[in-house]
């Protein structure tokens, strides 16, 4: 029986897409310049169906790729031309909200913001808040270990997922972790979160709910330069304050945001900082005064305090629109994602500007200043010969700067297909080999999202204690099994 | 002369792991030396030992040739205060990291415990409610694999999703995947002010503190047969803020505000020098009161984090330990059933040697087949701490 006939036996006709035109809908994720049309798309409605699909793939040695909402920015959900794309959009039930246990249990296709909306009436919320939280899925967040503006204080997806049900690349349904902490045994949950779909597919997610803070206060401070805004950031951290968020935008990104959403940031600013504090009222009030003073001491020429939720939303609107807004001032742009130690911020920003100037390319800087996570937007016009190449060079040079300063090639967007080639700049062969030991334990045939994360696949060798007769994937003529 | 001959000495009387004597002990001083040692001891079974504060816990090794002692691998390599991180060698005592200038590694551990040991044992204490555990605070790690290769994962920045997060895999792996030689931790500022609230409110009142706006750093319970249960809360922040919150918490719990914690704070409910029965119990938050009751009814003292659902139970003296191995097994089975019903697990840390064979110390765990496969890939000859981990890994 071919894979396709097996899938037909497991799924209703409307859950299976083989029509070339309809398959094109899924040819890319949020990183649209990588495009691959998958061989087949499936839309499972239960964990058992996901398991059946993956089991069929495993037995036929066909690659599979899981996809949530398709908002990823590293091509992590880029389909495989000869493989099955498993779309989780039909798995969107919130199975339980248990404020008394500070937990919710959701299916992977549930949208990030929906978890918070379900928990808010109980006085709780789901802390990780990627900018795409209105559309991105929890399953995708698990795969990418998504962050967000508030992870400076609250951490990332990995700190807020306590249990998973996953389908392993064998097609087995397995539970990792649980509702209680410290599950005995290896922390496979910790390895799975952020593994970008290379260890299996999450089919149920138990998340930690966080108590809504008593008070939230938001401040916008305008500085003449990014150096001064960076110095203010360091001063805030040095004072022992851990804000919920510290975000920075430079002049070019402010210009873009103004053009797009008219956020009304102070005119003439070389940089703005958005600082948000939350927690018990007395603590927040005391820290807020200190943060305001530190901004002024470090050269802020104007500070604004959000008087209410509407003003708070207005301050955030400029920041949250920044990526899309850059489209107003440049026909094309690359969103980069790198991390540096916070203290290296002024040096690295200067170097980015030098590299950009050397190549005649403009770079708008938007970033999570509190944790040193840069999102430089490299602007170019694809219609001008050579510009795309120069932008690509600058974008790559920024990653080299991050590594040079002891940082990382990605803080939250993931490695995916886009940055696999940069992994050897950050890790040795032995480091990558060790990661692939885990890959081999889960997926010795390399069928779960192949071609992502690792620049070269590791040959896993024989699986200890288990043997199969079928030939390896590359000899099987994968396309023929359809 | 091989590195093994250079570094290893005959084991002494104290070089015993859970009742099994070692033949040799070696204490490498650098990661490179450790890698050479491990590469040179391919025929030997190995147990890694740090400060030794938890190394007697868990099942005994099936075989033991060599103890690798990490205490010469000590020292803070870097403390980047502006970046709130520190790079330390694995044998560094936790006492040093609790007291860095103006900052702290907010991970409770006995002063003599080492950084590497604390990670390998996934040890934690009261403040895990606010700061999390080793899995949350470890941002980078260097490990010598059982084949002698030096490997790193993570890095020196808190926000980092490049590659698999192997730090989490090593956390709590009990030395079964290799030798941890260096750790990078996220630090926190030392709070300006702290206060405790102590009370005799029943464990059910813990929920009121979690549901309130107190942002408690720790919420601990202690209960024993024949004594009134206690709750204690740690609040941290500005002086005015802490005083106000502490006063409200004290009113809610009918307790008192104190500058010092209760004497039982962050101490296990068994004697440090002669433990006879010790368990780690986990559960969902709402089930904490039921699990506390079950342990007390079984004759055990229980204490731990009511704010996170991680509790420790034991007998206060060897004399109070059930006399027959079968009775020990009964207590373990009872508590395991209670923990399972509470959504968690019961792990036996220490049991009388006579009773140990009749007990599954780790208990059933989900995903064991995958765990075995991970072990097989990292340590195909099962040389590192064989038999010490879940499912006989």
From TrEMBL, chain A:
InterPro entries: FAD-bd_oxidored_4_C, FAD-bd_PCMH, FAD-bd_PCMH-like_sf, FAD-bd_PCMH_sub2, FAD-linked_Oxase-like_C, FAD-linked_OxidoTrans_Type4, Oxid_FAD_bind_N, Vanillyl_alc_oxidase_C-sub2. Its cofactor is FAD. It holds the Pfam family FAD_binding_4. GO terms for molecular function: FAD binding; oxidoreductase activity. Signal peptide: none annotated. The keyword Flavoprotein applies. Keywords: FAD, Flavoprotein, Oxidoreductase. Residues 34-212 form the FAD-binding PCMH-type domain. PANTHER family: GLYCOLATE OXIDASE SUBUNIT GLCD. This is Glycolate oxidase.
UniProtKB/TrEMBL annotation, chain B:
Transmembrane segments: none annotated. One of its GO terms (molecular function) is catalytic activity. Residues 17-190 form the FAD-binding PCMH-type domain. Keywords: FAD, Flavoprotein. Pfam families: FAD_binding_4 (PF01565). InterPro entries: FAD-bd_PCMH, FAD-bd_PCMH-like_sf, FAD-bd_PCMH_sub2, FAD-linked_Oxase-like_C, Oxid_FAD_bind_N. This is Glycolate oxidase FAD binding subunit. It comes from Actinoplanes philippinensis.
């Amino acid at each position: 029986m071919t894979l396709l006939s097996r899938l037909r036996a497991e799924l209703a006709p409307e859950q299976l897409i083989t029509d070339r035109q309809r398959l094109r809908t899924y040819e890319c994720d949020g990183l649209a310049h990588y495009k691959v049309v998958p061989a087949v798309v499936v839309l499972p409605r239960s964990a058992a169906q996901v398991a059946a699909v993956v089991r069929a793939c495993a037995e036929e040695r066909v690659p599979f790729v899981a996809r949530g909402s398709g908002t990823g920015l590293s091509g992590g959900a880029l389909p495989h031309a000869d493989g099955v794309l498993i779309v989780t959009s039909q798995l969107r039930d919130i199975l339980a909200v248990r404020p008394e246990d500070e937990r919710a249990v959701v299916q992977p296709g549930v949208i990030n913001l929906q978890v918070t909306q379900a928990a808010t009436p109980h006085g709780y919320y789901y802390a990780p808040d990627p900018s795409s939280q209105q559309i991105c899925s929890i399953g995708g967040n698990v795969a990418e270990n998504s962050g967000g503006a508030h992870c400076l204080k609250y951490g990332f997806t990995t700190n807020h997922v306590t249990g998973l049900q996953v389908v392993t690349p064998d097609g087995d349904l397995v539970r990792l972790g649980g509702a209680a902490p410290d599950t005995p045994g290896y922390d496979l949950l910790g390895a799975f979160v952020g593994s970008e779909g290379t260890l299996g597919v999450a089919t149920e997610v138990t998340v930690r709910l966080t108590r809504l803070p008593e008070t939230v206060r938001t401040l916008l401070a305008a500085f003449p330069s990014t150096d001064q805004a960076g110095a203010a950031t360091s001063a805030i951290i040095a004072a022992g304050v851990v804000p919920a968020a510290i975000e920075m935008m430079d002049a070019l990104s402010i210009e873009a945001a103004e053009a797009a959403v008219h956020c009304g940031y102070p005119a003439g600013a070389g940089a703005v900082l958005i600082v948000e504090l939350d927690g018990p009222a007395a603590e927040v009030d005391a820290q807020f005064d200190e943060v305001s003073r530190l901004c002024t001491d470090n050269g802020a020429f104007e500070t604004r305090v959000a008087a209410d939720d509407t003003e708070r939303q207005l301050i955030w609107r400029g920041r949250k629109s920044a990526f899309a807004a850059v489209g107003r001032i440049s026909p094309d742009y690359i969103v980069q994602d790198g991390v540096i130690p916070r203290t290296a911020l002024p040096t690295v920003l200067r170097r980015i500007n030098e590299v950009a100037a050397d190549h005649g390319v403009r770079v708008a800087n938007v970033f999570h200043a509190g944790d040193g996570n840069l999102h430089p937007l490299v602007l170019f016009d694809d219609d001008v010969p050579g510009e795309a190449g120069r932008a690509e060079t600058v974008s790559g040079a920024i990653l080299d700067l991050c590594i040079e300063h002891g940082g990382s090639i990605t803080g939250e967007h993931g490695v995916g297909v886009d940055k696999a080639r940069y992994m050897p700049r950050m890790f040795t062969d032995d480091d990558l080999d060790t990661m692939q030991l885990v890959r081999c334990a889960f997926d010795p045939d390399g069928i779960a999202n192949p071609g992502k994360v690792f620049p070269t696949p590791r040959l896993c060798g024989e699986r200890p204690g288990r043997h199969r007769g079928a030939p390896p994937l590359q000899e099987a003529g994968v396309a023929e099994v359809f | 002369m091989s590195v093994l001959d250079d570094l290893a000495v005959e084991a002494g009387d104290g070089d015993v792991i859970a009742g099994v004597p070692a033949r040799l002990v070696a204490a490498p001083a650098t990661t490179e030396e450790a890698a050479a040692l491990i590469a040179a001891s391919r025929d030997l079974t190995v147990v890694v030992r740090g400060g030794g504060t938890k190394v007697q816990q868990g099942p005994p090794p099936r075989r033991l040739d060599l103890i690798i002692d990490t205490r010469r691998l000590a020292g803070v390599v870097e403390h980047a205060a502006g970046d709130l991180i520190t790079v330390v060698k694995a044998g560094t005592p936790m006492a040093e990291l609790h007291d860095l200038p103006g900052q702290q590694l907010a991970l409770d551990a006995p002063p003599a415990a080492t950084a590497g040991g604390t990670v390998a044992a996934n040890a934690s204490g009261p403040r895990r409610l606010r700061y999390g555990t080793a899995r949350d605070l470890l941002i980078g790690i260097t490990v010598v694999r059982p084949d002698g290769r030096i490997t790193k994962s993570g890095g020196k920045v808190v926000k980092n999703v490049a590659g698999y997060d192997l730090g989490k895999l090593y956390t709590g792996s009990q030395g079964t995947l290799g030798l941890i030689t260096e750790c990078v931790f996220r630090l926190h500022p030392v709070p300006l002010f702290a206060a405790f609230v102590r009370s005799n409110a029943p464990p059910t009142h813990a929920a009121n503190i979690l549901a309130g706006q107190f942002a408690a750093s720790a919420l601990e319970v202690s209960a024993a047969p024949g004594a009134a249960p206690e709750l204690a809360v740690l609040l941290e922040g500005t002086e005015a803020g802490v005083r106000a919150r502490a006063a409200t918490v004290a009113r809610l719990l009918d307790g008192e505000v104190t500058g010092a914690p209760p004497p039982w704070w962050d101490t296990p409910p068994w004697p440090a020098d002669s433990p006879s029965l010790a368990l780690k119990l986990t559960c969902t938050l709402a089930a904490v009161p039921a699990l506390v009751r079950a342990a007390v009814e079984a004759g055990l003292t229980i204490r731990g984090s009511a704010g996170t659902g991680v509790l420790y139970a034991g007998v206060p003296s060897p004399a109070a330990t059930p006399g027959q191995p079968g009775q020990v097994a009964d207590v373990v089975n009872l508590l395991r059933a209670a923990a399972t019903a509470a959504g968690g697990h019961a792990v036996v840390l220490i049991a009388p040697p006579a009773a140990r064979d009749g007990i599954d110390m780790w208990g059933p765990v989900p995903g064991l087949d995958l765990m075995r496969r991970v072990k097989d890939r990292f340590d195909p000859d099962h040389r590192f701490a064989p038999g010490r981990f879940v499912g006989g890994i």
